[in-house]
Structure formats: C-alpha cells, structure tokens
C-alpha cells in the first residue's frame, strides 16, 4: 500500500533463551496511514507489546533476532544503523506506556523530562524556548496551571495527570506515529475515558497515526479504524473495526467478544470464557496455534492440528482471517454465538441467591 | 527543602545529646549497676598500679560520689565549656571540649585526638576517593556488560576483596611493595602541609589496601543497583525519547543507582573517620584507630571515652549529611 506511514511486513521477533527459541512475533504484517488508528488486540503474551517495541527499535541491546520489514514513511528500520533509529525515535515515532508512574523518572521534574525529549531532536532551540514548548504541551493535554506544574515532580501528579504528561512528552516533537501500549490499563475507570478522548482529540489535531495496543476490545471499539487481533505471535484476524465487530471471522475473536460484558445489549445471557490458557511461545501448538482452545476444530477434520492456516481474504475487502473454517461455517457459528447460544462446555452459573435482574 | 534541613539539624542535636547520655551511662552508670562502688570506679581513672591516696584523690576530683545527674551535668559542661580541676597544689583548666586528662600522658585527651585526626582523615578521604571511583565504575561496566569476561573477572576479584581481611592484604602489600620492591618504602605519616608529595606517596599503600576492601563492596552494590535500575520502565521511556545511550545510562540510570550508594558511602566514611583501626595498626599509622587501640590496652578510660564520643559524633554528622544529600538527589524525600 504506497503512501502508508507505517508498513510492517512479515515481521518476526525471536528471542533465544536457554529453554529454546521464543517466537514472540512470528510473521506479522499490517500497514497504517496517517490520521488512522490501528488497534492491536490480544491476550498477555500474544506479542502485541513486543511488536510495538520492535517498531520503536527498543529491542536493541537484547538478544532479539528481528527479520522482516518495518518501513516508516518509506524508510526501512529493520537492520538500519541503531543511531539512525534512535534519531527517528521520539521524533518521528513516539510511545506511551502502561504505568505512567514508573515510566516517568522520579528524580526529574516533568518539565525537565519534556524539555529533554524536545531538545534531543531540536538541538538548536534554547532552554527558554524548550521550556515554553513544554508548558504549551502541558496546557494542550489539559494540565491546569501548566506554567506552575511544569516544575513539579511526577509523584506530585495523579495517575491520569501523569499519563497526560506522558502524552505531552510523546507528542512534543509532533511525531507521525504514536504507539500507545495499554495507556489506560493502570488508570481509574473514570479517568480511562478522558485519556482515550484526549488521545483521539490530539490525533485529530496533529494528524498522526496511532497504534493502540490493548487487551480491552472496548477501548479499540471507541477509537480504532482498523483492528489487528494477535494470537501466539501471529495475526488471527485483521480488518476494519466495523467489519470485525459486525462479522468477526476467527473463533479467537469470537472468544474475545463473547467474554466481554457489553452495555449495548439489553440483557446479557452469559459471558463465555475462552477455555485454556495462552500457549507457550517456545513450543507453539502445531497447525493452527489456537486449535487446543478452539471449540470448532472438529469441524474441519483434523486440519487445524497439522496445517497452519493462511491469512485469507473474506468477502469484505481488507478483512483477513487465519482460520480453516469455511466462510459459510463461520457465518453460521457466529450467528449462533451472537444470538446468545452458550457452547456446551460452558456450565450454567451456580445460583448466587438474591434478586435476578 | 530549608524546613527539611532545619528539621534534620534539630534532630541531629537531639541525637548528639542522646549519644552523650548513652556514652555517659556506659562509663558511669553501668559499673554502678554491676555493683562497683565509687572507689573501684575511681581505680579505673588512675591508670595501672595506683596508690590508695591517688585513687581517693581521683574519686574526689571527679566527684564520683555525687548524684548521677550532677555528674552528667558536669560531663556535658566540661565538653561544652571546659572544666577546672583541683589537683591539691592548684587548679588546672581543661579547655573545651574537655574529655578529662589521660592518665598515661597526664595531658588533656582532646588535643591528643586532634593531633591524630589528620592521619585518619587523610587515610579515609584518600581511600574513599579511590574506592568510590574504582568501585562504582567497575560496578557500572560490569552491569552494562553482564556476563562478559570483564564482569566475571571483576566480580571474582571483588569476592576476594570482600573476603580478604585488611591485616592480610596489608601485610602482603607491605612485604611486596615496601620491602621486596621498595616502591613505597617506610610508610610513615608526613603532614600534607609539610610535603604533599611525600604525604601522598607514603599513604598510597594504606589507601590501596583499605580501598580494595571497600571498592569490592561498592562494585558489587553498584552492579546490583545498576542492573535493577536499567530494567526500570523510565529507562525504557528515556530510550523511547531517542536519547543517546550515554545519556540514558549516565543521566537516567546512574543517577538512580547511585542514590543508595551515597547513603552507604556517608555511613562508611563516618565510621572510618572514627578510626580505621585495622589499617592503622597494620601500617603503624598514628591515627585515631591506633589511639583507640592504645587507649584500650592502657585502660585509659578518659581516652576511651573521648574517642567513643568523637566516633559517635562523626557517625551522627555523616548521617545528617547523607540525609540532606539524599533529599537533594531524590525529590520524593523532601516532603
């Protein structure tokens, strides 16, 4: 896709360990245009954070073996000089993290940390100008009295305010790409929505592309144009948010949707959990990595245990699914599940007593 | 910040008073509790083989029969204002801070300690610079090249440094570099103002031997602290900002890793200023440590009391300096 800001092609990030090769990311491809938001969704250990750190070049100095292509604005990042990637980092691409308290240095004022981020990529500006820029950014992210708070330390801010500071720091150089790695997980529920609103406001203002990494489908539903569902370091499903919420094609995506409480349903019959636990990334299950946890594996006669499913197009353009089920079968099963049919292996809840709603 | 310092200063004064009380109690109250009468107590302030008259005179002179609070008041007063002693023939004045008269030399204790102090200070400061620079840089490099040959080698040497006692390394160093190959012959103290070059040359061996022990300790501490700090989230943030690796390590990493080192350094230095006993004895340097050993051997109670108070004073002051420094380094402590 020419003109895309970020193109990731067949990205593989492997870590050799004493127990074997950990295939954290194993053949992931996607692209992202300016002004758009991509949500990367998956359980812990699905490789979503490793992917984003890989884009930022932050696996440098570790044992990571990275192959494939990451192109930012047409410039290849895999195998490039580390100094060049460092120049791009924080300038053309920036990242905010899960826990804003531990992500800010406790010994420096927030102003200093923002100024540092600005001046490393703008060595020509004076300290005064950089300070003014920091104050402007703090004001922009909604910190009251920014010219006073600029001299405060991170521990003097509340959790939501700290995340605002992180966002101000990430956007100080007006990066084309912003990666948000679970930006609301460590925050109060009441603050989460504010931070998400802020990110989408700023995205509209700065026109940057955003990668939103989360395990919470509710978060991506709000913000994302496209969604990438990852499982065991691979892409399970990739498509527009509208398609994925309306016609999810992968049993894993169904699992994520069915296990999520939804306010837009009148009355929820049951939450359906995904059985089992995420697989080891050293001994990824043969065939379809999801098959040991899949309720529909028996429908294609053992293929899912031996054959790795290709990421195939569906009827909708740009909607890709890695599943052996036929399109007709998938439509049928999702229709049943979304109509509230509970799979056989899910037990009826034990009555808790009290009033049933 | 100012209020923090004032609060700490007041605390320090209070602490010093408590220290003086405890010291006083050890020397004057404990013997009583152990069943000694004032005559027996006085025996210990006269020196070896005293006559009965001398003991009685000391008992009367020190007012050992007085109530304890009077004695403590006098004890404090003599430290702050000095004291007059009536010795039958006339009155002698002991200027402040007065810890009484040594009965070995019949001289006030304080000036003797003061004359030995430069030796200990020279030894402690020189060695501490060596071990701080050496230990911290080895620790940082080890942490950054974890598992490398340098890391394993230096940590092996550090283990030896921690394990080997100073009287062992000191004697070997003397044997090799003072006698066999006399690069640093006759280790004696020459004051800095007399001849700075000779001062340094003569102290090189004790510095290295003392620093070896501490450098080993500090290298291990720094390595552990650095490894922990470099895996912190804010280090990842610093890298994500695109800072050069040097800035990440020195400004963001080392800054945090050094904070606990500073605390330990202050305490170690305070402890050493009270006398680097083993090093001073090994190299026969006439500092506070050797002074203490000789005072104990001679059972010279005023000297022991004086050196105890002085050592405690150094530790309390070191504590104060560390606290203030810590607040400068870590803004979270200030409030």
What is the H/E order of chain B?
HHHHEEHHHHHHHHH
> Which CATH-level-2 architecture of the largest domain in chain B?
Orthogonal Bundle
The tally of domains of chain A stands at 2
The strands making up the biggest β-sheet of chain B line up spatially as: 1-2
Q: Please state the second-level CATH architecture of the largest domain in chain A.
A: 3-Layer(aba) Sandwich
Radius of gyration of chain B: 24 Å
Radius of gyration of chain A: 22 Å
Approximate strand percentage of chain B: under 5%
pLDDT < 50 runs, ≥5 residues of chain A: 353-357
Number of structural domains of chain B? 2
How would you characterize this protein structure?
Chain A has 357 residues and is of the alpha/beta class. Chain A folds into two domains: 225 residues, 3-Layer(aba) Sandwich (Rossmann fold); 89 residues, no CATH class. Chain A is 33% helix and 20% strand. Chain A has 13 helices and twelve strands. In chain A, strands 6-7-8-3-9-10-12-11 form an eight-stranded mixed beta sheet, with helices on both faces. The longest helix of chain A is centred in the middle third of the chain and has 18 residues. Chain A is globular and about 70 Å long. Chain A starts with 5 loop residues before the first strand and ends in a 19-residue tail after the last helix. Chain B has 335 residues and is mostly helical. Chain B has two domains: 93 residues; 225 residues, MetI-like fold. Chain B has 13 helices and two strands; from the N terminus they run ααααββααααααααα. Chain B has a two-stranded antiparallel ribbon with strand order 1-2. In chain B, a hairpin with a 4-residue loop joins strand 1 and strand 2. In chain B, helix 5 packs antiparallel against helix 6 and helix 7 packs across helix 8. The mean pLDDT of chain B is 87.
């Amino acid at each position: 896709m020419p003109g895309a800001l970020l193109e990731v092609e067949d990205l593989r990030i492997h870590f050799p360990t004493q127990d074997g090769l950990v295939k954290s990311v194993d053949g992931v491809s996607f692209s992202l245009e300016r002004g758009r938001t991509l949500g990367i969704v998956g359980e812990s250990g699905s490789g979503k954070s490793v992917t984003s750190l890989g884009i930022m070049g932050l696996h440098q100095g570790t044992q990571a073996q990275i192959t494939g292509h990451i192109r930012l604005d047409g410039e290849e990042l895999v195998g490039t000089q580390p100094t060049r990637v460092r120049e791009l980092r924080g300038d053309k691409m920036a990242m905010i993290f899960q826990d804003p308290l531990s992500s800010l240095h406790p010994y420096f004022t927030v102003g200093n940390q923002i100024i540092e981020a600005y001046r490393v990529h703008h060595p020509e500006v004076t300290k005064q100008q950089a300070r003014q820029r920091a104050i402007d950014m703090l004001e922009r992210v909604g910190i009251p009295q920014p010219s006073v708070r600029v001299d405060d330390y991170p521990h003097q801010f509340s959790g939501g305010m700290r995340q605002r500071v992180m966002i101000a720091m990430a956007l100080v150089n007006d990066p084309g790409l912003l990666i948000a790695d679970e930006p609301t997980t460590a925050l109060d529920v009441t603050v989460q929505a504010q931070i998400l609103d802020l990110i989408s406001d700023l995205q509209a203002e700065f026109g940057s592309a955003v990668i939103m990494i989360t395990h919470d489908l509710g978060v991506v539903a709000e913000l994302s144009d496209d969604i990438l569902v990852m499982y065991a370091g691979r892409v399970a499903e990739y498509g527009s948010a509208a398609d994925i919420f309306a016609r999810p094609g992968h049993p894993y995506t169904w699992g994520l949707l069915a296990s999520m409480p939804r306010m837009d349903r009148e009355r929820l019959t049951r939450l359906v959990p995904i059985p089992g636990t995420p697989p080891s990334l050293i001994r990824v299950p043969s065939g379809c990595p999801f098959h040991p946890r899949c309720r529909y594996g028996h429908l294609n006669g053992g293929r899912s245990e031996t054959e790795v499913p290709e990421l195939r197009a569906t009827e909708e353009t740009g909607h890709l699914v890695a599943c052996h089920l036929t399109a007709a079968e998938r439509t049928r099963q999702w229709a049943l599940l979304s109509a509230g049919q509970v799979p056989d292996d899910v037990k009826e809840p034990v009555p808790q007593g009290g009033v049933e709603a | 910040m100012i209020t923090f310092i004032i609060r700490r200063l007041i605390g320090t004064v209070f602490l010093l008073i408590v220290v003086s009380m405890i010291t006083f109690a050890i020397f004057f109250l404990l013997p009583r509790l152990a069943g000694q009468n004032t005559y027996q107590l006085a025996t210990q302030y006269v020196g070896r083989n005293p006559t009965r008259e001398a003991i009685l005179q000391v008992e009367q002179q020190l007012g050992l029969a007085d109530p304890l609070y009077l004695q403590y008041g006098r004890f404090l007063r003599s430290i702050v204002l000095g004291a007059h002693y009536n010795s039958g023939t006339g009155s002698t004045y002991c200027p402040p801070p007065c810890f009484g008269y040594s009965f070995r030399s019949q001289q006030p204790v304080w000036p003797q300690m003061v004359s030995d102090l430069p030796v200990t200070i020279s030894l402690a400061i020189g060695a501490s610079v060596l071990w701080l620079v050496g230990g911290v840089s080895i620790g940082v490099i080890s942490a950054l090249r974890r598992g490398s040959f340098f890391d394993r080698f230096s940590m092996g040497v550090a283990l030896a440094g921690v394990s080997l006692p100073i009287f062992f390394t000191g004697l070997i160093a003397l044997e090799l570099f003072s006698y066999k190959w006399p690069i640093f012959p006759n280790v004696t103290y020459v004051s800095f103002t007399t001849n700075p070059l000779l001062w340094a040359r003569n102290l090189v061996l004790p510095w290295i031997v003392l620093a070896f022990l501490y450098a080993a300790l500090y290298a291990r501490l720094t390595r552990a602290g650095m490894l922990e700090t470099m895996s912190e989230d804010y280090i990842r943030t610093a890298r994500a900002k695109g800072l050069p690796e040097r800035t990440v390590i020195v400004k963001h990493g080392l800054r945090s890793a050094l904070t606990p080192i500073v605390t330990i350094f202050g305490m170690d230095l305070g402890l050493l200023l009270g006398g680097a006993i083993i090093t001073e004895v090994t190299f026969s340097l006439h500092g506070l440590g050797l002074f203490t050993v000789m005072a104990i051997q001679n059972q010279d109670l005023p000297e022991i009391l004086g050196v105890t108070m002085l050592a405690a004073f150094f530790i309390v002051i070191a504590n104060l300096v560390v606290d203030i420094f810590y607040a400068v380094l870590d803004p979270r402590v200030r409030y």
